TrEMBL record:
Enzyme class: hydrolase
Taxonomic lineage from the root: Eukaryota, Fungi, Dikarya, Basidiomycota, Agaricomycotina
Keywords of the record: Carbohydrate metabolism, Cellulose degradation, Glycosidase, Hydrolase, Polysaccharide degradation, Signal
Leader sequence segment: 1-22
Protein name: Glucanase
EC id: 3.2.1.-
Catalytic activity: Hydrolysis of (1->4)-beta-D-glucosidic linkages in cellulose and cellotetraose, releasing cellobiose from the non-reducing ends of the chains
SUPFAM superfamilies linked to this entry: Concanavalin A-like lectins/glucanases
GO molecular function: cellulose 1,4-beta-cellobiosidase activity
Family to which the UniProt record says this protein belongs: Belongs to the glycosyl hydrolase 7 (cellulase C) family.
BP GO terms, sorted: cellulose catabolic process
Length: 489
């Protein structure tokens, strides 16, 4: 629900390592993308393996002078004034280098399983990471979500309060913005072009130029700050979770590609103008705990977070076609050979039949929780549907939260609100549990594992048993009526 901008400056750099978005390409470390196979599925033909790769977000990479690799362009949370006197000169002077995925960033792949370690200590201390799934060495894989479904296995057993193992879609440019912005020489190969619904302003380079103008170092994060500009786009949070709480959230925007914003108002950067940007920062979210079922997700509960499980998300259209308009985002799980239906709403004032994200669900939720309905103001499901039709990039990350200690996901938030008020309690984590200073020490060895990523037609990724002749099940029939190899609901 809240900003992933905190992700953009979490790598604690040594003297020669920084964490920024760069535009030129360095030659000190060869960039070799780790392979991450995934599968594409149809109901009639089953699933076939795709030879995917991942690339590290540019913000975690070493950014240095094009003339002298021992000179950083950005150190701590300030720019090198000599190399970066203005945004254009900075982009020309600074080179982005290749990455040591395992050694520096704690990113490892075994078969189809991607492990993202929270803290890695090598020559420097690195915190968190973010990677993108690639179609080639120079372009991101673009997923068109309408009338499709995504499934993946996840292990969050080693991900405590205050951390977020996230899998989501962002409407980035396929080439990282390289063709639209010629001063971006690094492109998707080096993980450039990030955007999301928070219009984050701590991205160091946007649209091929440095975000150094008006840069203000963060008072709480020694590696972060905010610039004059932000980067906005549609965002579909399929999975934001730790072992105590989980949510899926749609964030529509009124723009249909990565778009720059300028200043507090246009970027929605402060509480007084939070809803002034082109995107919905809150989104419409489904968190089972927040929606009234406190025994659904967690250790030993219906979805048992001490063990691996499968997450299935379906993007249903109004006419059942790939060209229709998004009308519902449906979720269910598979664990221990059983399909688990998503929890139903148990909030006074809301219909108890609701168990997915629909316009009705979002309208009722915003009304009962007393939240601003920026979701509908920015186009609702129909708004984000346009981004899904054009294609979105798959993002996988692990991060902590310098802005709100992740309490919007796993605790009571806002912290000054009555926890018994509808929508305030989102999980069982204490209000002091997620401070970065604490989790970066106490949970340094935390990690999340994403594996067995499948994408394709509805009801194809979790392998339903063929329906007997004479008893057909329509494509969009809720999973509760579909017998599967894992048993009934």
């Amino acid at each position: 629900m809240f900003s992933k901008a905190a992700l953009l400056a979490l790598s604690y750099a040594a003297i020669i390592v920084t964490t920024v978005f760069g535009q030129q390409v360095g030659t000190n470390t060869a960039e070799t993308h780790p392979s991450l196979p995934w599968t594409k599925c149809t109901r009639s033909g089953g699933c076939t393996t795709q030879s995917g790769k991942v690339t590290l977000d540019a913000n975690w990479r070493w950014l240095h002078s094009t003339e002298d690799p021992n000179t950083n362009c950005y150190t701590g949370n300030t720019w090198n004034a000599t190399l970066c006197p203005d945004p254009t000169t900075c982009a020309a002077n600074c080179a982005l280098d290749g990455a040591d995925y395992a050694g520096t960033y704690g990113i490892t792949i075994s078969g189809n399983a991607l492990t993202l370690k929270f803290v890695t200590n090598s020559q420097q201390k690195n915190v968190g990471s973010r990677v993108y799934l690639m179609a080639s060495d120079t372009e991101y894989e673009m997923f068109k979500l309408l009338n499709q479904e995504l499934a993946f296995d996840v292990d969050v057993s080693n991900l405590p309060c205050g951390l977020n193992g996230a899998l989501y879609f962002s409407q980035m440019d396929a080439d990282g913005g390289m063709s639209r912005f010629p001063t971006n020489k690094a492109g998707a190969k080096y993980g450039t072009g990030y955007c999301d619904s928070q219009c984050p302003r701590d991205i160091k380079f946007i649209n091929g130029q440095a975000n150094s103008a008006g840069w203000s170092p963060s008072s709480s994060d020694p590696n972060a700050g905010t610039g004059q500009y932000g980067s906005c786009c549609n965002e579909m949070d399929v999975w934001e979770a730790n072992n105590r709480a989980a949510a899926f959230t749609a964030h529509p925007c009124t723009v249909t590609q990565q778009t720059i914003c300028e200043g507090d108002s246009a970027c929605g950067s402060t509480p007084t103008n939070r809803y002034a940007s082109v995107c919905d920062p809150d989104g419409c979210d489904f968190n089972s705990f927040r929606m009234g079922n406190k025994l659904f997700y967690g250790a030993g509960l219906t979805v048992d977070t001490t063990k691996k499980f499968t997450v299935v998300t379906q993007f249903i259209t109004d006419d059942g076609t790939d060209t229709g308009t998004l009308s519902e985002i449906r979720r269910f799980y598979v664990q221990d050979g059983k399909v688990i239906q998503n929890s139903r709403v148990n909030v006074p004032g809301m219909s108890s039949s609701l168990d997915s994200i629909t316009t009705d669900f979002c309208t009722q939720q915003k009304s009962v929780f007393g939240d601003t309905n920026s979701f509908q103001d920015k186009g609702g499901l129909a708004g984000i549907s346009k981004g899904m039709a054009d294609g979105m990039v798959l993002v996988l990350s692990v991060w902590d939260d310098h802005a709100a200690n992740m309490l919007w996901l796993d605790g009571d938030y806002p912290t000054d609100a009555d926890p018994s008020a509808p929508g305030v309690a989102r999980g069982t984590c204490g209000t002091t549990s997620g401070t970065p200073a604490y989790v970066e020490t106490s949970a340094a060895n935390a990690f999340v594992v994403f594996s067995n990523i499948r994408f394709g037609e509805l009801d194809s990724t979790y392998i339903p048993i063929p329906i007997p002749t004479g008893n057909p099940v329509p494509t969009n029939t809720p999973p509760a009526t579909i017998p599967t190899k894992y048993g009934q609901w």
